[in-house]
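Figure 2 data, in text form.
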Amino acid sequence: MAKILGLEWPSWSKRHYRRLIQKKLTPLTDIYSKAVVGDFSQNLSIPEEEDEFTEIYVGTQLMLEIIREKLARIDDLSANLENKIEEKTVELERLNKSLVGRELKMVGLKKELAKQKGAKDGKS
């Protein structure tokens, strides 16, 4: 007789089999329901007794851990980029003020030069 989930198949009724499968799938569906909306915070408890679902449980838990690590890395990179953008913005604002100041100074010098040239031309 074939053993399914540690029990011999012929001794099972369809109803018992369904209950057992539902019991095994409920923790997984809870995890997947949360994952669909971006919640990867919950851990999946791996049953001590191994059966046909053990690999699915272990794989799902590993997937959750990897996703959390990747999300944390993305958060770190995002924060670093935001800091770099802020630094560059401050630097550009400083350079812009400096350039505007120089441009205003150049305009003033051009006016002064034009006055001096006009005064010189007027004397001649």
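Caption note: The first helix runs from residue 14 to 36.
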